[in-house]
Write a structure and sequence with these properties.
Layout: H1 11-25, E1 41-43, H2 50-67, E2 72-73, E3 82-86, H3 92-99, E4 113-120, E5 123-130, H4 133-146, E6 150-151, E7 156-157, E8 171-174, E9 182-185, H5 192-196, H6 199-211, E10 216-220, E11 231-232, E12 235-236, H7 288-307, E13 312-317, E14 321-322, E15 342-343, H8 349-365, E16 371-376, H9 386-395, H10 400-409, H11 416-443, E17 449-453
Parallel strand pairs: 1-2, 1-3, 3-5, 9-10, 10-13, 13-16, 16-17
Antiparallel strand pairs: 4-5, 4-8, 6-7, 11-12, 14-15
Length: about 450
């Protein structure tokens, strides 16, 4: 309710004030009545893409838990209070609001969003908007946080159901912490919890990631796992000589681990509803070809689920290793550990072409991939070839500071020769990454690339 000033002394000033209040009423929500969530009408626009469908389902679940009543959706402004969510491209009411200068979307960053109560076309409205549908989605989950929800990576913490739950007055701009926000599923070959996750587990986690405003997942693939597939000189990469078949050809412990069968677990086997300690999708793979085919299907499904939630996918590979069966095409290198893939010489031109095939294989299997990380590993080995010795000699002075920092902060190798051996290997590994970047840009000039290092 608007109260006119008690100091109005004449009709003229009374009329002027009334006129000003009417104009203000057009752009400011009425405070005469607080609105219950049960009374709100949701308008999400006309979008029927996967993100819009998924978001509507999340709104239905959360609103029902909060107030005990399924939310009401409409395509028109109606009722006493509307919640309009979306971007100009997905919801024409958001576009109308921007054109009427009720909101300023041009000042927002890519994933920024706003929540603003106003009056849109004569209706009290909460606008939840961003420059794109993903940003608007973040605004929706921020709205539910304003109602008391907390989103964790494992679950939702939702307040006790309250039919009288009120929508608070809101006028805020929300921003995300940085450009890439997400979860790295790292070193899947050696961290068992990762390769035990099935698609249903990933789907539940992706739900939570989106609610927490994450936009990226990264999958770190070792050369012996079945998710990166390629062929070189007509020969397909093989898995299973390093990775254990009973792990779905993922875990690299064929030569030193025990059983991957649930029946052999001494404590807790009742927790597993499967035969093998691996994902449900890889239970029945029985050969390298089957593992590579199924691994590609699993990763494609993961990427699709991520895209439906506004989450892009990056893959990480280490170009310093090749599958043992393809090492026949490279310079001979001594292999230090049975659980490592084949070692390579950093100045071997054949390696650059194998990495070209690797990048081509990734892009062919996963055309929607957002980017590729090229890893520089912590493990190192000696490269004895004269071309490599010449490279190290040329680059050595450029790594002097790195050597001193390594001695000070990474003293796992107290012996100076080991410290130098690590730097020598890093010079070679960096050269491999440089060459791989060059061929990746030849294949796809606009491909996003990143560098990943461990223990540097």
């Amino acid at each position: 309710m608007f109260v006119l000033s008690s100091h109005v002394n004449n009709l003229s000033s009374h009329v002027n004030n009334l006129s000003n209040l009417v104009n203000k009423r057009k752009t400011t929500m009425s405070n005469s009545n607080e609105t219950r969530l049960t009374e709100c009408v949701w308008i999400l626009g006309d979008g029927q893409d996967a993100l819009a469908v998924w978001l509507r389902g999340q709104i239905e679940q959360l609103a029902a838990k909060l107030c005990g009543t399924p939310p009401r959706f409409s395509t028109q402004l109606e009722g006493a209070f509307c919640i309009v969510a979306g971007s100009p491209e997905s919801n024409h009411f958001v576009k109308d609001a921007a054109q009427q200068k009720l909101i300023d979307l041009e000042s927002l960053g890519r994933d920024d969003f706003l929540l603003k109560q106003t009056v849109l076309n004569g209706t009290d409205t909460l606008l939840i908007a961003g420059r794109n549908p993903r940003a608007a989605m973040y605004g929706v989950f921020d709205f539910f946080e304003q109602l008391g929800c907390t989103f964790l990576i494992s679950r939702d913490a939702v307040p006790q159901t309250n039919p009288d739950l009120l929508v608070p007055p809101l006028d805020k701009v929300g921003q995300t912490a940085c450009s890439l926000r997400g979860v790295g599923f790292g070193a899947i070959s050696c961290w068992p919890t990762n390769f035990m996750m099935s698609l249903t587990d990933h789907e539940a986690m992706l739900d939570q990631m989106a609610k927490m405003k994450m936009n990226t997942m990264m999958h770190w693939h070792f050369e012996n796992d079945p998710f990166i597939d390629y062929t070189y000189k007509g020969e397909r990469k093989l898995v299973g000589d390093i990775s254990h078949p009973d792990s779905g050809y993922i875990n690299y412990g064929r030569h030193f681990t025990g059983s991957f069968l649930v029946k052999d677990i001494p404590v807790g086997k009742e927790k597993f509803d499967r035969k093998k300690i691996t994902s449900m999708e890889l239970q029945d793979v029985a050969s390298s070809d089957e593992a590579l085919d199924k691994g590609r299907e699993v990763m494609q499904s993961l990427m699709k689920m991520g895209k439906e939630r506004g989450i892009g996918t990056w893959n990480l590979v280490e170009p310093q290793f090749v599958p043992p069966n393809l090492s026949k095409y490279t310079r001979r290198m001594e292999r230090m550990h049975l659980h490592w893939s084949a070692h390579v010489s950093c100045t071997d031109p054949e390696l650059t072409e194998i990495n070209r095939a690797r990048i081509e294989g990734i892009l062919k299997a996963y055309p929607d991939i957002e980017g590729i990380y090229l890893g520089i590993p912590e493990g190192f080995y000696d490269d004895p070839y004269p071309e490599t010795e010449a490279l190290i000699e040329r680059e050595w002075d450029n790594y002097a500071e790195a050597l001193e920092l390594q001695k000070e902060y990474w003293n796992i190798w107290p012996d100076e020769e080991q410290q130098k051996a690590h730097i020598r290997a890093d010079i070679g590994f960096v050269e491999i990454v440089k060459n791989t970047i060059a061929v990746a840009k030849e294949i796809k000039p606009d491909l996003k690339l990143g560098i990943h290092t461990v223990c540097k």
